[in-house]
Amino acid sequence: MKLMNLTLGAVLLSGTAMSAQAEEMHFIMCGGEVRPADQAVIEEFEADHEGVTVNLEAVPWGTCQDKSLTLAAAGDPPSIAYMGSRTLSQLAKNDMIVEARIDPEAPYQPGVLNTVTIEGVQWGYPHAFSTKALYLNCDVIEESGQDCVAPATWDEMYAMAETVVENTDSAGVGLAGKDFDNTMHQFLNYLYSNGGTVIDSDTGENMLDSQQTREALEFYGRLASVSQEGPTAWERDQLTELFNDGQIAMYVAGPDRLNQHNDDINQLVAPVPAGPSGESGSILITDSIVVFKGSGHEDLAHDLAQRITSGDSQYDLDSSWGLTPILDYEALGMEDPYYTQGDVWPVFVGGIAKGGPEPLVEDFKSLQSVFTNMIQGILLEDDTVDNLVTIAGEELDDAL
Amino acid sequence: MADTVVATPQDTAKPRRKAVSEKVFGWLLVGPAMLFIAVIVAWPLAETIRLSFMEAGLGGEEYVGLANYQDLVESRKFHQTIVRTFYWMFLSVALKLILGLIGAALLNAAVPGRALFRVLVMPPWIIPMAIGMIGWLWLYNGYFGVLSGTMMKLGITDGPFEFLAYKQSAFYSAVVADVWVGTPMVTLFFLAAMQGVSRDLYEAAWVDGASRWYRFRRITIPQIMPVIVSMSLLSAIFTFNSFEIIWILTEGGPRGATTTLIVDTYKTAISNFKFGEGSARAVIIVILLGIFSILYLQVLKLVNRKYGTK
Asked: Which of A376, A382, A387, A394 is the best residue to mutate to test the B interface, defined by the most B CB atoms within 10 Å of its own CB?
């Protein structure tokens, strides 16, 4: 009997010891899928850390950020998450995440670290980067009797779209207007191509209520007359289906769409056309890996984040997924990286220097509402451009 | 003079002990239910009321008194949301009741295959709402949806029409989807009530030469009136609080055209993490529904009195 008790005790003790060693990390991956390049790093990480398991949870963008924030607010934060960098301000100011430990020598592209830096502190590891450009379906454009030449200005773009509408069954342009974050992103491409800004990066001042915004909003409204039916029901990613189906002649999107478009489409990629008050520009968006506070695995999470965002791993992701290069891989000694090849990549890489940031504010949902309200207002012809921009400026003041 | 009986201590003690134990026993019986209600209803309600006086967010909370309520009272958008919510509720409930009544009358008729029709009514109610709404999303799609395609083929429209892209069409499209989900339940309740109406009444009316319509109007409707009123109340509460349908179809857009009080509350409290402001909205919903329920119960009492039911 004594022997049996001793054995039982030993088994229980060894079980306790094992459970003390075993650690489960919760990794929330926004976007609804785990990309093979990330999966490979995670598997290697698990192999190097005996007893550590990374429980990956892929959540679609629409609900992912809410989920991570809610878990953290409820005191059950994930260990690590891949999220839009626009959430960093809210997370940091509410003490939910810890500072990132980014290698100061890492050769990030210009502007990338700004998207994760708040008051001089870096809060996320930038992991996916995109600039935007105008995709043209040359089959549709040529069918309308035009040469497939990239429009350089808004007027040229509108004229091309109008001709498509007049001479084919397709819409001239794909426009996003749904209650979704990329409606704001789409609009910012036009705003930044017209010399506009949202928030002054030096003073933090609200700059939305401006002539440049008025011009951009007026143009967005004009585009609605040559766009697909009912843009307020569409978000940007859904436009890809219409592009593949030949239902729209052009739309603005990031380089990841290169892998999403049908191979048989004769497409042209061009910089976003310039507005009357500016030069071609693009929104610079990053998504980041963030380490949550209070999970009990902060050091492990930093290790994993650093591995995932390190040169080789990051290159695998960028090249396989078709992302704008987040690092200057040539500076890391890589020869002929993917973005130096072909005619398309220079357009996206060229957008880096001319891009504007996604505004970093604490209440990013309110910021999004300000923009969607203004954009839907013009798409539904609810109010004048002047009133909509004035109201948006006031609402942004409240949100800041 | 009545005979006096002297009770012995034993005689008096027995009934008293029995009374006390019955009282305790009663409390023991209702105790679990009371505890359940306290945990599931009372505590969250009290917490919501407390939070409504706070500016509460991810970073903590601070007492702000009636500021959240004052903001709502002064907000034109919120007033519009209240009006929209009641319009949504009355329109949707009215359609459910009318369609439910027609459906129940048809299912109650002695026609071949009646059992099959009764089963076929159920799917909108049975299938998960999210799946049903994804189906409606496809139906309403201008480019790939059946409705728009049919309208184009029939020459009603000369191009695709996005039902969810415009304020009015989005609102009425959401109402149609809500009616699709809610009608089967109403139909089945009405059908059950109709089956309880005595056949003698119909036979007597038939002998007197009453038409079908007359019998329906003067016998069926009065006989099932208490059920109609009860279902109206239940359906009104369900519709008022209907969230998934609107959220999946439009998320309250475009430009707030389908934002009802419950969607507004969710957006404020959960999407924007403004727990205090969201709680104030929730409290107002409770108050509005409370008033509405009291009025309805008064109507129900009048109806029961008029039609002689209890």
From this structure: A376
How does the average pLDDT of chain A come out, rounded?
90
Write the CB contacts of B128 (distance below 8 Å, at least 6 apart in sequence).
Answer: none
Work out the number of other CB atoms within 10 angstroms of the CB of residue B14.
Answer: 10
Chain B: nearest CA to A354, how far in angstroms? 32
- Check whether B268 has a pLDDT greater than 90: yes
| CA-to-CA dists, residue A236 to A159, A223, A231, A245, angstroms | 22, 15, 10, 15
What pLDDT score does B299 carry? 84
CB-CB under 8 Å, B272 with A365? yes
Range of the domain at B13: 9-51
- What is the rounded distance in angstroms from the CA atom of residue A38 to the CA atom of residue A224? 39
Judging contacts by C-beta atoms under 8 Å, the chain A residues touching residue B58 are 69, 72-73, 90, 94, 96
C-alpha–C-alpha distance, residues A173 and A247, integer Å: 9
Tell whether B44 and B135 lie within a shared domain. no
Give the gap in angstroms from C-alpha A68 to the nearest C-alpha of chain B: 12
Name beta bridge partners: A56: A27
My answer on whether B108 and B43 are in the same domain is no
Q: How confident is the model at residue B15 (pLDDT cuts 50, 70, 90)?
A: low
Q: Please report the domains of chain A, with CATH numbers, ordered by start residue.
A: 24-130+285-356 (3.40.190.10), 133-283+361-399 (3.40.190.10)
Strand locations in A144-264 (E): 250-253
Chain-chain contact of B58 with A178 (C-beta, under 8 angstroms): no
Asked, for residue B170, whether it belongs to a domain, the answer is: yes
Pair (B22, B108) in one structural domain: no
ipTM passes above 0.85: no
Number of domains in chain B: 2
Q: Does residue A15 carry a pLDDT above 70?
A: no
Same domain, B30 and B97: no
**Per-residue confidence (pLDDT) for residue A157, from 0 to 100:** 97
Contacts with B143 from chain A: Cβ below 8 Å: 228-229, 242, 245, 247
Helix (H) or strand (E) holding A352: helix A345-353
Quote the pLDDT of residue A11: 47
Shared domain check, B153 and B297: yes
- Tell whether the model's pLDDT for residue A10 goes beyond 70: no
Of B160, B254, B272, nearest to A376 by CB-CB distance is: B254
Tokens representing B17 are: 């002990």
- Whether residue B36 is found in the same domain as residue B170: no
Q: What is the pLDDT of residue B16?
A: 56
Please list every residue in chain B whose beta carbon sits closer than 8 Å to the beta carbon of residue A95: 59
Distance from CA of B244 to the nearest CA of A (A): 14
Is B59 a member of any domain?
no
CB-based contacts of A242: which residues, under 8 Å, 6+ apart?
A171, A174, A228, A234, A248, A251, B143
By Cβ distance, the residue of A177, A245, A365 closest to B271 is A365
Other Cβ atoms within 10 Å of B196 Cβ, number = 10
Cα B236 from Cα A114, distance rounded (Å): 51
Percentage of residues in chain A having pLDDT higher than 90: 68
Domain annotation covers residue B62: no
- Ranking A184-193, A347-356, B76-85 by mean pLDDT, the lowest is A347-356
